[in-house]
Amino acid sequence: MSERGFRPLLPVGQVLVRGRSMEPHLHDGDRLVVRWDRAAVRAARPGTVAVVRLPGSRPLSVKRLAFREQDSWWVERDNPAEGVDSWQVGAVAEQDVLAVALFRLWPTPGRITAPPRAGGQAAE
């Protein structure tokens, strides 16, 4: 999945989470159903989990969209002790946000929870 010219065949597919950067909300080995659709990416809101292409020769990554800048997204990991996000590599160009996660398929099917906001309230 790390090739620059990656193009999915279908608008909905699966991705496998690798690593610990999205713990405690997602874990290594989780399978997500994602939508590879530019309209879905354009409609994404802060807090959405997405598949992104980080700068450099890194593999595709699962990250949380934090906020939109002009033509880019600031992306973050849920686990500040693991992985790489915009704090290390800067904002991700809009065209490098490739898909949005719809839900977790395996091992526990369901909605992907959001990290708590400042003040202890959960993000929607």
Explained architecture:
The protein is mainly beta. The chain has one domain (12-106): Ribbon (Umud Fragment, subunit A), CATH 2.10.109. 7% of the residues lie in helices and 31% in strands. It contains two helices and seven strands. It has a seven-stranded antiparallel beta sheet. The protein is globular and about 35 Å long.
Give the key terms.
124 residues, mainly beta, Umud Fragment, subunit A, 2 helices, 7 strands, 7% helix
CATH architecture: Ribbon
Structural class: mainly beta
Total number of distinct structural domains: 1
Figure out the total of helices.
Answer: 2
Shape: globular
Major sheet, described briefly?
7 strands, antiparallel
Kindly state the mean pLDDT as a whole number?
Answer: 88
Distance between the termini: 29 Å
How is this structure best summarized?
The protein is mostly beta strands and 124 residues long.
